[in-house]
Backbone:
C-alpha cells in the first residue's frame, strides 16, 4: 500500500508515519500544495496513493482544497470508483457536524479528529 501523509506539524507527520508504516510505504508532505504535487506525480507515474491522510488546517493550501483538487485529478483521469484513493481528513476540531460537512464538500472518505491514537 502506498500512503501519503500531509500535515504541517512535523510531529504529526512522524507520529502518523510510525503508526501507518506497517501497512505500506509512507510519503510525507508539509502542506496541501506539497501533498497535491506528490499526489499528481504519483498519478502521472501510474503509481497512485492508496491512502491519503490529510490535515485540513495548513498554510499555503488547506487540506480541504487539496482534497477537492485530488478528486478533480482522479475525475480527469477517469479513475473508476474502486481505483480512487481513500482519503481521510484530520482536524483538531471535535465538531462532528462541521467535519461531516467538510468530508462531504471535499469528497473525502472519512474524517478523524486529533489526537489520533493507535489502536
Residues:
Amino acid at each position: 500500500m502506498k500512503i501519503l501523509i500531509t500535515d504541517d506539524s512535523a510531529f504529526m507527520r512522524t507520529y502518523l508515519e510510525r503508526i501507518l508504516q506497517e501497512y505500506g510505504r509512507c510519503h510525507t508532505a508539509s502542506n496541501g500544495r506539497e501533498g497535491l504535487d506528490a499526489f499528481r506525480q504519483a498519478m502521472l507515474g501510474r503509481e497512485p496513493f492508496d491512502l491519503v491522510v490529510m490535515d485540513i488546517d495548513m498554510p499555503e493550501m488547506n487540506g480541504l482544497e487539496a482534497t477537492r483538487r485530488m478528486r478533480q485529478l482522479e475525475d480527469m483521469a477517469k479513475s473508476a470508483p474502486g481505483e480512487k484513493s481513500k482519503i481521510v481528513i484530520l482536524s483538531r476540531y471535535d465538531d462532528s457536524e462541521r467535519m461531516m460537512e467538510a468530508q462531504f464538500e471535499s469528497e473525502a472518505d472519512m474524517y478523524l479528529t486529533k489526537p489520533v491514537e493507535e489502536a
User: Anything to note?
Assistant: The mean pLDDT is 93. The domain at 2-113 is CATH 3.40.50.2300 (Rossmann fold). The radius of gyration is 13 Å. The chain has one domain: 2-113.
